[in-house]
Amino acid sequence: MKKNLKYLLLMVVSMGMFVSCSEEDLDPTIQQSKDIDISVNTTSDLQAILNGAYNRMTSFEYYGRDKIILGEVFSDNTASNANSNRFVVEARMDLLPQTATALTFWARAYTVIGSANIIINAEGITGDQDEINHIKGQAYVMRALAHFDLVTFYGQQHVNGGGQSAAGVPYVTEFRNEDELFPARVSVQQVKENAYADLAMAQDLMTDANTKEFISIYAAYAIEARIANYFGEHPRALEAANFVIDSGLFTVATEENFLASFATKRASNSIFELAFRDVDNEGINGIAMIYNQTNYGDVIALPNLVAIYEEGDVRGASPFTPGTVPSTVIGLMPNGTTYRNVGKYPSIAPYDDNIVVVRIEEMYLIKAEALLGTEEGLDALNMVAGNRGGSEYTEATIANVLLERRKELAFEGFRFHDLARMGMDIPFLDPTLQTHQGPAYGSFKFAMPLPAGEVDANANLTQNAGYGA
Amino acid sequence: MKKRLNGILTLLLVFAVQLTFAQSLQVTGTVTDADGMPLPGVNVIVRGTNTGSTTDFDGKYAVNATQGQVLVFSFVGYVTQNVTVSTQSVINVSLQEDAAQLDEVIVLGYSTRGVEEVTGSSVQIGGEEVANVPVVSVEQALQGRVAGLQVSTASGTPGAIQDIRIRGQSSLNAGNDPLYVIDGVPVSNSNVSGSANYTSLNPLAAINSQDIASITVLKDASATAAYGARGSNGVIVVTTKKGRSGETQFTFASQVGVQNDAYMKRNVLTGAQRYELLSESLVAGYGPNGTVQQRPTLTLENAVPTLLPSVAANYDGTSNYDWSGMIRNEDALLQNYTVSAAGGDDMGSFYASLGYNKTEATVIGGNFERINASLNFNRQLRSNLNLSTSVNVSNTKQNPILENGSFFSNPYITRALMNPFNNIFDEDGGYDINLPFGSLPNIFYVMDNNITRNSLTRAITNTKLDWELFDNLTFSNRFSIDYQLNEYFSYRNRYEGDAESFNGDTSTSDDKNYNWVYQGSLNYGFKVGENHNFDLTGLFEYQNNQNSYLFGYGQNFPVDGLIQINTTSAAFDADSQFSDWYNVSYLGLLNYNFAGKYVVDATFRREGSSRFAMGNRFGNFGSVGAAWNIHREAFMANSPFNTLRLRASYGITGNNAIGINAYQALLTYSANYADNGAGFPSQFGNSDLTWEKGETFDVGFTFGLLENRLTGSFAYFNRRTYDLLLNVPLSRTTGFSQQARNIGEMTNKGIEAELAFDVFRTQDFTWNVSANVGTVENEVTELAVGADGEELDPNAGSSYTSTRTGLPANAWFMRTWAGVDPQTGSPTWYVNGVDGDVTSNYNAAERVYQNTSALPTYSGGLGTRVQFKGFFAEADVYFAGGHKIYEQFAQFYMRTNNFTLGTYNGAAELLERWQAPGDITDVPKLNYAANDNFFNTSSRHLFDGDYIRLKNLAFGYNLPSTFAQNIGIDGLTLTLRGTNIATWVKDDGLKLDPEVRANGFTTLTTPPVESYTLGINVKF
To answer: What is the pLDDT tens value at each position of chain A, 469 positions in all?
Structure first.
């Protein structure tokens, strides 16, 4: 019996070691992440979140591919050959609310906005105030740009004569505010004005530096110029474009180095570009994959696009053998019939070409568009045309500016927006390759559907016209 | 063998020493039960020695003993009988059922009880039944054997995880998989495959079915409440084989067979058929009345050469290249060999086994190979101290295939979508890797040259020390370690397939999962007076799981023949991660019965989990149950019932199967930008997050009539899950898609019935039939509400399903197909989703409830066994229905335009297309240049899921023991077995196997297999 008592004692002690478990003892280890509420304190914390926002912009769902490709396949520049079933419905302009692209682009852009809002609303950050302001300035530009990109695809300004009073997109300025989880759409005009205000704030906060892989004060003006140009506010566009041009920090790429500028980091014509390193491996979702002749190369150039270039224009077409260095932007594939973009975003292995968001040539073309019919406008137009191996223009007409924009910015996602903002139908010139069959201006297809997952979750939103109740 | 061994032993040891003392003789005899039926497996031991034997299939035994020694006959559930050896050499024994043990026992994980002591709903399956089924993973053997348990084959690739649902779906977003308990310890059984895109690898596949003594499925709260926060989805308790006293018994078991797809009727267009349809679709788009262009000269004959010269240049219009046939691995070989030994004496026993399994998939490339060794050892260290320990170590190698999605290198994409104009071979007879059409790689080259491998090493040890402090007061300590190491390796070649454009790549990852459990418990069983029997258990359990992951990647090989990362030169990538979770529990179990007539039991568990926020980590769970063994009442003495019991239980269990850090609002730093680290918000978080709770009421009865020849049971259950762990959709404008919250409620109710009848029960001839059926009706009763006060659909954005109150969870919710317009050939859908007006504008049709969900509302099994002398035959049927399944990849191969006819390939069903006004068909007209949304989500591709399947048909022969012993063995059984050999499907439209994963979508995975195996079981 004595022995048994000894056992009992031993047992009580051994169990006691384990029994004293409290809530704290159950804290899980956390090594890859940090708690949001207690982890934004210093400039390096802010910088890391800013880097995260840039990283999200590089995603294939946004500037890494889709933002650019959608602007191309909704147009007369390119088509999808359904190689890997990518951009098939997009090239038909036949999107449904449940089409993945409608959701992923929307969601990705708002994650950039979310990251920007953490930075913008951060208080009590320790560190150099100029540095903090510069980081915040970049976040303001991102917020403006992302909302603008959203409104160009989801806003109703081009549908059924909508105009700027039509529904835009929600303009989100707070992160994780539990009272504002279901924002409503604001008007297109409101989006525009909020974007202008954010850019003005950025221009105010930012220090002067020409950092191409990060948003600079020049990028803040360049993006303002783009937005103003989109809405036809030419004086504002001109003023902002001139701020960039007149800085003298950026030079138009010459005919000789035009192709190289797409394979060079921080080229002299670049104002803001997204940095890609070989570790940013988007793999089969990379933009180079979708344009190149691979199993995943779904997006091909239309012969109709090739036809707009003069002989000798570096942006035109020439026969191309995969694996070699292209001599023009467009390559004629060895099969003798297929044209592809081979000059822009050329690198496949590894995928480390930076993706230019805004470059100086666009500023000159915006300037030309603001100064139609003038000598200064013509000079600006020929700053681009004169450096590409083709002939120069004799007059700065809107037709010439649009033609030059199409030539210069082909494959970079501008064409659909140029057609839309000019109130033009989508040209239908190639019955076998073009599958959208040319929607007329005002068609509901000029806006993408709001994603089904968004409309179902957020009762404060109304679906775009033409996409069901 | 035994005889010879015995002879030698006897000669050398026993005889030599004992001859001088007494006369040794061989005692033989038959052990029967009270009804005179032979009892196989009874231990016969000469008391105080290591000598002993077990009875064979005919209840016969033989043992050497000397006069005056005592033979001990023992068998679970029967009263042990001692017989002193005198001069007689034949001792026949009849064992009485042990009333104190209340018959057969049920292993409940933390406790083991007699069947008449339990108040909950559980079903136990013997090891034989599990071992007989030729599958690599034990849970597959449960299909059709347990009312209310549904098994669906998510993939037929060996080693893949199967979906198991017990009494339906209890949770919307937290896991619905049951908890697995092996030898009393909850284990982690999540997918360990190195890539989610490839075939999953189930850690349970590391366990050899032949090593299993029993599996118990716990269904209601009384049975599962002991598992507290993890019991809501039911518990599957696996018990491994232990040794038994007696002479060492060797067993060799083998199964060898061949497998093929069980049900696969979805055919694709041949080259010639596709050419015909292509011509027709081109004319529709560009011919004289074309919708896009009007070319007066375009005809069916010249359409292809005119518009698609590259097709004409590379395909003759008639050749047939059978891609979909060639990806089959016909008569895939299955082999399983196990050799085991079990034995012991009064002081201890052991079971040891060595097993080898090699199973090919029915598709090229998906092989499975396992070697495992186990040892269960049990020893009485002191009169009051008992040690048992088990070690089970195995290595499982699996070549997973890229089947979890529409990947180019998924062989089933080739089967469904490869352009049949492509020749498989080039002019030299090798695989052509420059296919002229489409972008799918030549899968045969890819499978031959790529390497994908999971190699899982799993070691489980489980040690238990029982210490009887006082009479009937036992202090037990159990410590178990479960270590899983999966090495994943992937090499992709430079020339063809996904890594072609960057000159090949390779990756390796190590996933290490270390899980340990400590259990300390006190058990006290005592009687008060004559009739009050108490059994009390208090238990403390602590579980910790640590997972670490290491990954490396590189691409661009300089030359052929290299596969490792250090031979690559670009895009290097590396990753390491660590995560852990903790679980701590205090458990109390009470079981009381009055004279075996009235049973009451109660369970209480307080459990803490690291998955929830501070302040919400601990929860209380428990159950109460009662049973009345009516047949033990005096007034039943003359009734025809041998068994009649009523039982009922009520309890609360939980579910914590959500992400490890789901409650935290997180910034994750796994990104980078411009050579600098980057952080991004990764989780919305919820500081109030806690358990999901399940409240279950269960009532039932069990009966046995006519000497228990007719037995049956019936149960009704009603389970309400509340505070659902729900991923409430957020507006994406927040930067997040969802937030985990405890909100919502769902009920599952149904009945379960089992019936078995021994039609004949004689010495030479037995015939038994049995049936079980379970129903479950699922209904969502509460959900979160959105900005407008209306409920939020957790499936927001889906075009297939919706979750709404009043409907089953994940109800099919889509546009309703209204057929092809006979006049225009266009597809139509009902505008209001039900009837009346139809439209060809897909967007204009409303999505409606399709009257069911993906989960079967009924399922069950039928079985029969016949035995005549040594011959036996058995058959089992599994059925399920009341649900619908969606053919997900119809979205590809049912397109009526250039997608199927220009780029890929279409289903043979496209041949039934509409061609002229008046045609009545379900496939619209073809047009190369049009999109009619026929392929898009609608009830056109939703089929009734009801099916009946002959799961098992076997014939076998048991060699009579007398004959067996003449050839030096104890027993021999030969079995010829077929599985899944016939399938009846209710819906003619369903061309794919009706067994799909629990979400109801058909996939491009290996379908369930039909197999024929020859099993040999030798005991010696």
So the answer is: 455 666 666 666 555 555 556 777 788 888 888 888 888 999 999 999 999 999 999 999 999 999 999 999 999 999 998 777 889 899 999 898 989 999 999 999 999 999 999 999 999 999 999 999 999 999 999 999 999 999 999 999 999 999 999 999 999 999 998 888 899 999 999 999 999 999 999 999 999 888 899 999 999 999 999 999 999 999 999 999 999 999 999 999 999 999 999 999 999 999 999 999 877 767 778 888 899 877 778 899 999 999 999 999 999 999 998 888 999 999 999 888 899 999 999 887 677 889 999 999 999 999 999 999 999 999 999 999 999 998 999 999 999 999 999 999 999 999 999 999 999 999 999 888 898 989 999 999 999 999 998 998 999 999 999 987 5
Which among B679, B734, B797 has CB closest to A452?
Answer: B797
Residue B14 backbone zone (phi > 0: left; psi -120 to 50: alpha; other: beta): alpha
Q: Find which of B514, B522, B732, B791 to mutate to test the A interface (most A CBs within 10 Å of its CB).
A: B732
Yes or no, beta carbons of B672 and A55 under 8 Å apart: yes
Closest CA to B49 of B4, B94, B102, B13: B13
Q: What's the rounded Cα separation, in Å, for the pair B336 and B88?
A: 44
Give me the residue from B440, B470, B798 closest to A4, CB to CB. Answer: B470
What is the C-alpha separation between A333 and A337, in angstroms, rounded?
7
Question: What residue type is B817 in one-letter code?
Answer: W
In 3D, which of B990, B984, B923, B944 has the Cα closest to residue B852? Answer: B944
Q: List B residues 401-440 in contact with A (Cβ-Cβ < 8 A).
A: 406, 408, 438-440
Residue B566, number of CB atoms within 10 A of its CB: 9
Partner A contacted by B381 (CB < 8 A):
no
Report the distance separating Cα A288 and Cα A68, nearest Å.
12
Mutate to test the interface with B, among A17, A24, A33 (most CBs of B within 10 A): A33
Say which residues have a Cβ less than 8 Å from residue A399's Cβ, sequence separation at least 6.
none
Dihedral class, residue B201 (left if φ above 0, else alpha if ψ from -120 to 50, else beta): beta
Q: Which of B925, B779, B917, B938 is nearest to B843 (CA)?
A: B938
Please tell me which of the candidates A92, A454, A459 has its beta carbon nearest to residue B931. Answer: A92
> N- to C-terminal Cα distance for chain A?
81
Cα B772 off chain centre by: 19
Q: What residue of B is the nearest CA neighbor of A30?
A: B579
The DSSP bridge partners found for residue B913 are B923
Which chain A residue lies closest to B436 (C-alpha atoms)? A335
Interface size, chain A vs chain B, as Cβ–Cβ contacts under 8 Å: 296
Alpha carbon of B387: minimum distance to chain A alpha carbons (Å): 16
Instruction: Establish whether the linkage from the previous residue to A439 is cis, with ω within 30° of 0.
Output: no
User: What's the pTM value of the predicted model, to 2 decimals?
Assistant: 0.85
Rounded CA gap, A266 and A269, in Å? Answer: 8
- CA A206, A250, A378 angle in degrees (round to 5)? 120
